[in-house]
Amino acid sequence: MPNKSILVTRSSLPPIEEYISELQSIWGSAWLTNMGPLHQQFEKMVAEYLKVQNISLFTNGHMALELAIQALGLTGEVITTPFTFVSTTHAIVRNGLTPVFCDINPHDYTIDVSKIEALITDKTSAIIPVHVYGNVCDVAAIDCIAKKYGLKVIYDAAHTFGVTVNGRGIGTYGDVSMFSFHATKVFNTIEGGALTFADESYRSKFNNIKNFGITSPENVVTVGSNAKMNEFQAAMGICNLRHIDEQIALRKAVMERYYEHLEGRKGIKLITQQQGVSPNYAYFPVVFDEKVLGKTRDDLCEALKSENIYARKYFYPLTNSFECNEGLYDPNATPVAKYIADRVLTLPLYADLELNDVDRICKTMNLSRFSRQKEQTILDCTG
Ligand SMILES: Cc1ncc(COP(=O)(O)O)c(C=O)c1O
User: 171 and which of 48, 136, 163, 196 could share a cystine (Cβ 3.0–4.6 Å)?
Assistant: First the structure.
């Protein structure tokens, strides 16, 4: 019998009876979308969980980001990173703006704040940093730079559902944060997303722009889109939110098992706990140094695949080197991002992953022969 297959992720689902019970209320009201009662209920619940004052729900994270950029009236150039899901870059380009790619730092793979100022021109209107893998950007430094140059900050917080910094919700930093509630995320509404924001006056902007720009039956104030969260999505959100703390605790146990096998091994770099941050254990990226291991990331990916284990090369290629962006940007201008993208593999991590499956994954990679060291691996990203 072939080994059971393990995918990089598996969606969290509530007990089916709970979802059916929410569906019964939809059948009762026959209100399927357009900010119905479940939408309103979920909006309050999720704002409380995320520890934010202001929130607007969307049909998915990408549309939330794209419409936030439109609603804030950004112009010209936007500083961002290429080490992310392609959505971040697409949202900028689809608004007719130019992404200016800043490199990432080799510690947590978020934007390298020491390199932002050199990229600012008189055309720059905003910074869109990414809390990649659930790692928190240097929010204090970004805030200082944004204030100094009068720039807006929209965080791509797709990976940071429920993350707090010293008890403060991650969605309260910057002008706006975008969360994704996609099926593959720590928390899902099947598809879904949200914008959280500091300035209360954004509420009407975001609520209008996701509903065609309509403010009343005879009034349309913006050329908006249709990106409303429907009642079935909200129902899933309400159910999944009841179980989110258990889900995060299960993910933590999986991550800890990986650490037992891999922590400190020469030739690999794991992500580490950030000070003051309460994490959500969204992803388990590992960077492999082929010079020490004698094997590349691709070799390890293939070895896992031959055992029916499907890790993913998140985030490879960089968004500035996809075919749709070919010739427009120089991936070599972000060498750390390139180095990491060429060596990173995201190992399976989800709440239901069994600990003996983690053992199997680590055994297949056969890295236990590499000795442990006390200090964290420092990557030599010069190649
Ligand atoms: C970093 C990042 N940004 C944006 C998105 C887009 O979110 P969604 O899939 O909800 O549209 C995702 C996830 O899919 C993501 O991982």
Answer: 196
Dihedral of alpha carbons 26, 31, 37, 39, sign: positive
Among protein residues, the one with the nearest Cα to ligand 1's atom 1 is: 85
| Closest protein CA for atom 4 of ligand 1 | 87
DSSP run (H or E) holding 340: helix 335-343
- The string of pLDDT tens digits covering residues 316-344 is 999 999 999 989 999 899 999 999 999 99
Give the predicted TM-score (pTM) of the model.
0.97
Residue tagged 């600990």 (tokens)? 355
CA distance 85 to 62: 10
How far, in Å, is the centroid of ligand 1 from the Cα of 367?
32
Q: How far apart are CA 381 and CA 383, in angstroms?
A: 5
Nearest to 89 by CA among 98, 225, 179, 173: 98
Residue 318 near residue 172 (C-beta atoms within 8 A)? no
Query: In Å, how far are 64, 65, 67, 157, 217 from 193, measured between CA atoms?
Result: 7, 9, 12, 10, 26
